[in-house]
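To assess whether the prediction recovers the assembly geometry, we first specified each molecular entity separately, as shown.
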Amino acid sequence: MSHHDLTQFRHTGTLYLSAPEAAELVRRHGLERCIATVASHIREDFLRWIDFDKTARVAAHSRDGVIELMPVADQHRYSFKYVNGHPGNTRFGLSTVMAFGVLADVDTGAPLLLSELTLTTAIRTAAMSALAAQVLARPDSRVMALIGNGAQSEFQAIAFQHLLGITELRLYDVDPAATAKLVANLQDRGLTLTICRSTAEAVRGADIVTTVTADKACATIVTPDMIEPGMHLNAVGGDCPGKTELHGDILDQAKVFVEYEPQSRIEGEIQHKAADFAVTEFWQVLHGERAGRDDAAQVTVFDSVGFALEDFSALRFMYDTANALGLGERITLIPQLADPKNLFGSLRSQTVAHTRLELETVLT
Amino acid sequence: MSHHDLTQFRHTGTLYLSAPEAAELVRRHGLERCIATVASHIREDFLRWIDFDKTARVAAHSRDGVIELMPVADQHRYSFKYVNGHPGNTRFGLSTVMAFGVLADVDTGAPLLLSELTLTTAIRTAAMSALAAQVLARPDSRVMALIGNGAQSEFQAIAFQHLLGITELRLYDVDPAATAKLVANLQDRGLTLTICRSTAEAVRGADIVTTVTADKACATIVTPDMIEPGMHLNAVGGDCPGKTELHGDILDQAKVFVEYEPQSRIEGEIQHKAADFAVTEFWQVLHGERAGRDDAAQVTVFDSVGFALEDFSALRFMYDTANALGLGERITLIPQLADPKNLFGSLRSQTVAHTRLELETVLT
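The predicted structure of the complete assembly is given in tokenized form:
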């Protein structure tokens, strides 16, 4: 790692960015600017795709959900994200998706940053969706259907407004309260918001269709009869085995783009298709190796499942921005040893007790 | 998860146990008692081996080392460990092995505990080694060779003294300063400590041979000529592809035990052997399904690489003990939302700024 990072780690430990501090970072930096910068970081990192040691995420499935680890590394930095998906969590007052992650130094293994990634995942997912649509959707796209109006939806809306020039959103959610919440959150942002009574109504006339639903089921939220020539489908919600959003026939009639093919074959909309079903990895289009949209009438599908590299990009954004803004605190996740071969010796010192004593002395 | 854990997480977030707090926990609970309790937890968890969703760890190799993620789960709890191995780290004043991990709730994905695992890994590795030796070594074992006197060595020594009744240690390290450190750390513990000038000298006459070296190379630290009938070899240091400690012929003449066969085939001493080289998974011996040592003259090898389930056992020990002792602090790694579907709304609140302002008011 850089000499600066190493020195900082040795003297002050790991930078920790809590959920409230990350929200503060986004408020100070500006949400639109955060999304745009993360999209730019994702673009940079996808352009050097071959530099990365990539792996499909490691998932632990259970009755009610899934817990996943998503590692990735280049020659200098390593990152991983912990993320769950539990559609029933809102019953307990918990989020469906909760996440955190770490950015580490490859040369030493030192964890430089521990960050919340719940808010950050919403930002990076929206940034990835918008980046893909910049490349794949028709340039004159102005109307987007937004199916699923939960925790991720506002971020998608703002990303597409600012990075694509979307001016009208057509909204649908099985839960009208979710749509009402979205409208309340976005009412002053210069977007035309149209509440629809069905997916079909929302999709009608849209240039882009974004699906961001949470059910852990092979739902068929969008059917072939809804599809119009030239549409771009941004399928965000289907992201694990047994969780899809599009009718299979749609894929047969469209050109399908994925993030990382080995993972998407397991988790994406294409999980029901044959192993040789044709897909294009998005980085190849960015890199100029493969064509994106072939003509204005073609239907394009970004079969997005979320790939570890997007979190890598987001984590380096959070790390640099937190350092620049002086946000976060330093934590001792790793013992700071005078002699690193003498871990046992660290049991002799009374650091915690002394610190407490000093604190008590100050406070009394 | 239990109603208590869920309520605690919702109201106060994730329990965070820093490296200094973990050291304080070990001091208060007692190192010998920590090792014994973790060994007991490992035994319990290995006895219900089939309840766990197991996977070989996910490793990212680089020029100077490796960074690994080690997840495992049963129906109730999920854990993972982040751990690196960088033999050159001591040059930078950093530990060769640094680790941290999380214990989470399977039903919701909520991270209950974030803990340092550098010190804890040393404890759980020693506990695992001693547990295996209790089952596999000759019951009359009293003398142990300890090859490699680095950060892990004192923990191995104390585990074998207290769980096996080892009374004499024969020490060797390529770095005499490491051995001197070990002797200084253990001099008042009632062990006979003999400093040797070579591995061969240390191994001669030993009942148990523990190798815990750190070089990332196929070293041949122990050779067939050193082996005596009835020895138990506790091979701890060889734990990733290209990193072994025993001459291959030793394995051919011994009975070899592993933790989790799919991982050990990649990482263990057996990585150079054919895919059908006979091994016994240790849990099968504990469970009574397979025999351990067949007779007093047999040479047994515990080809240990460190398995995620051992960290699971250690994390539940740390969680319960930290809660019982009131150690650790609560952190907001996950946003605490009034409405979990309204992540966007969390950007509106000014929690951090207000807290800071209040703090500044108090301090001035």
